[in-house]
Amino acid sequence: MRRHLVLFVRAPQLGSGKRRLARAIGDVATVRFERMMIDRRWRLRIAVTPDKARRQAGRWRRGVEVTSQGGGDLGIRMRRALIACPQGPVVLVGGDIPALAARHIAAAFRLLGQHALVFGPAEDGGFWLVGARCGPRLPSLFERVRWSGPFALADTLARLPRRVSVGFVDRLEDVDDGEAYRRLAPRRGF
Known about the structure:
7-stranded mixed sheet; alpha/beta; 6 helices; 7 strands; 190 residues
């Protein structure tokens, strides 16, 4: 079965998205960072918001399927992106991670051979990666989750059916604010 990587992003546009980071480093540096994180090493599918950005093909890599995230909260949009993939292993990551985590993504695909779901815990209590063996029986994953806070991963895990086996890749830090960017920037040359 073919493996699918879904990059879950906001279209890199000046003045939108990653507002906490933009307050710290400015809009131009934020857009530059967002574009750099759209990693070109993977065969991938991009799920983008706002939905109208899907039509702006010049922004996206040729040969990559670009889909819109659609409406709903973060959990509804992520589940939609996962089940839109053909049956088989799928890993979904946010736009601030892929260029930084190639070996972690590869590990997630390996773990999907042993588990139904894989998560990449984030330092802030959320998660930066979710992987699933997609198919018609993908469980509801993200109902009643407190997003953007310290409980997102715990809420997600607490609501999974007991029969679902879960694996974990390394804990990483999301780049959501200026402090996280400053910790990352010297190592990556931004």
